[in-house]
Amino acid sequence: MKLKDDFFQIKDACPTATGMDYTIKLNPEHFIYQAHFPQNPITPGVCIIQIVKELAEELLNRKLFLKKVNNVKFLNVINPLENSEVVFSISVSSEEDEAYKIGAVVAEFSKLSLLFVPQEP
Questions:
Q1: Torsion angle of alpha carbons 9, 15, 21, 27, nearest 10°?
Q2: CB contact at 8 A, 33 and 69
Q3: What separation in angstroms does the CA of 51 have from each of 26, 70, 96?
Q4: Which residue range is the domain that position 68 belongs to?
Q5: Which residues are paired to 94 by β-bridges?
Q6: Is 101 within a domain?
Q7: Residue of 29, 23, 20, 1 whose CA lies nearest to 10
Q8: Alpha-carbon gap, residue 61 to 11, rounded angstroms
Q9: pLDDT tens, 53-111?
Q10: How many C-alpha atoms does 19 have within 13 Å on its Cβ side?
Q11: pLDDT digits over 21-46, tens only?
Q12: Domain total for the chain?
């Protein structure tokens, strides 16, 4: 399920030495937040991982498949009513055997290390 332009929108992109800092705006009215959780919306961890995937695809200009989750730390919850705009810092630290090691820091909310491979057409 694609989340870009429905669950979130890219508001700004700023190049860094190793990738890109994306400022995204979350849609607190999205149906996912109605179930997770009513009156107290929290961005699901799987959605955070999917956002990282879609931002990495934007950065690399290619479709990706998540091969391995090396490390994920959720430090704080992302409530779209309190934090409607969030910065995702995406970095590509290595390319090995046609795989991309993607690091992501989501402001003070989470840190992720993921391994992606190009998605077959």
A1: -10
A2: no
A3: 11, 17, 23
A4: 8-118
A5: 101
A6: yes
A7: 23
A8: 18
A9: 999 999 999 999 999 999 999 999 999 999 999 999 999 987 667 899 999 999 999 99
A10: 25
A11: 999 999 999 999 999 988 899 999 99
A12: 1
